[in-house]
Design brief:
With about 300 residues, the chain is α+β, with helices and mostly antiparallel strands. It has two domains: about 80 residues, Phosphorylase Kinase, domain 1, CATH 3.30.200.20; about 220 residues, Transferase(Phosphotransferase), domain 1, CATH 1.10.510.10. Helices cover about 35% and strands about 15% of the residues. The longest helix is centred in the middle third of the chain and has 20 residues. The chain is globular and about 60 Å long.
């Protein structure tokens, strides 16, 4: 249900904002008194307060996270935050025109640099995906700026949510441990980054883990886990150290129902699809055991970023 109306004026702490367009259920565009476009998030949910707190924590510390611009404290509307407006998100940009390899590297570096900022302070983004990577277009290069967005579900590693293994993020970008509701940490973002990277390398809306059933199907999550196993498996025996018997039984069923000849297709991709250097970085990133994945810093130090 809409919480704001077109033409409505919102009084912030720093400016007045006139609502100009609705983008999603709780996301709007508005103009401030200087006629600059901003984004308004307006929803009566704890996530809006969490996003505000996260952005305030990192405010003025980095330009890699989309910043908080202002807050609306009007009792007649749900609490709203004002965010910086950027030209596009990388999902739409990639679907409109496939990224070149240098463009993929530029975006990937910025995403990892943003994750490094979060991870080194003990935070997990939990919802890394193309639509949460925002870009500004440049004059001399296609993209001149990249920022991470949507911190409504960002939490600290030691939080109850992480320790319990609460479900997080978007299923096709969600890590195996998060699907299994095992304790997760910063490495879950690394898996999501790898899934994002694969989508950007292939372009055209491709997603390696998209299952063959609709989102509301009972087997949707299990089908994604099967794709994890088939593309980057098998699940290692080390899962016995981090999963209980119920989760191990799920993995056993998945492996029993995945013939060996269907396994590891990503290892068999040809250089016509994706070059060897790209494949090596993906394989380094997409480790099924979260403890085996590199950190954001380690990935930034990879030779992949040194070669064009």
């Amino acid at each position: 249900m809409a919480t704001l109306m077109l033409g409505q004026t919102l009084r912030g702490r720093l400016s007045l904002y006139t609502v100009t367009k609705q983008l999603q259920d709780c996301i709007w565009l508005a103009r401030n008194q200087n006629k600059e476009t901003v984004v308004v998030k307006s929803v009566g949910h704890f996530r809006i307060h969490n996003e505000r707190d996260i952005l305030l924590h990192f405010q003025n510390k980095t330009n890699l996270l989309r910043p908080l611009v202002d807050e609306i404290d009007d009792s007649s509307t749900p609490h709203s935050i004002i965010l910086r407006y950027l030209d596009d998100d990388i999902l739409h940009a990639s679907n409109s025109q496939r990224l070149t390899r240098p463009e993929v590297k530029f975006v990937a570096r910025k995403v990892l640099e943003g994750l490094l900022v979060l991870h080194e302070e003990g935070f997990v983004h939990t919802d890394i995906k193309p639509s949460n990577v925002l870009v500004n277009y440049g004059k001399d290069t296609r993209f001149e700026e990249v920022q991470l967005a949507d911190f409504g579900s960002t939490v600290q590693v030691g939080s109850t949510y992480a320790q319990r293994g609460d479900p997080i993020g978007t299923p096709i970008f969600r890590s195996p441990e998060a699907h299994l509701q095992i304790k997760w940490g910063t490495s879950t973002d690394i898996w999501s980054f790898g899934a994002l990277l694969i989508s950007l390398l292939y372009g055209e809306g491709f997603h390696i883990f998209k299952p063959d059933v609709p989102v509301d199907h009972d087997d949707y999550d299990v089908k994604i886990l099967m794709k994890h196993h088939r593309c980057f498996g098998p699940f290692p025996a080390s899962y016995e150290e981090i999963a209980d018997q119920e989760r191990l039984a799920v993995l056993a069923w998945i492996m029993q129902n995945s013939p060996s000849e269907t396994l590891r297709p990503f290892h068999l991709t040809t250089t016509r699809e994706i070059c060897q250097e790209d494949k090596e970085l993906v394989l380094r990133t997409m480790k099924l055991d979260p403890r085996d994945r590199p950190t954001a810093r380690q990935l930034l130090e990879d030779k992949w970023f040194c070669h064009s």
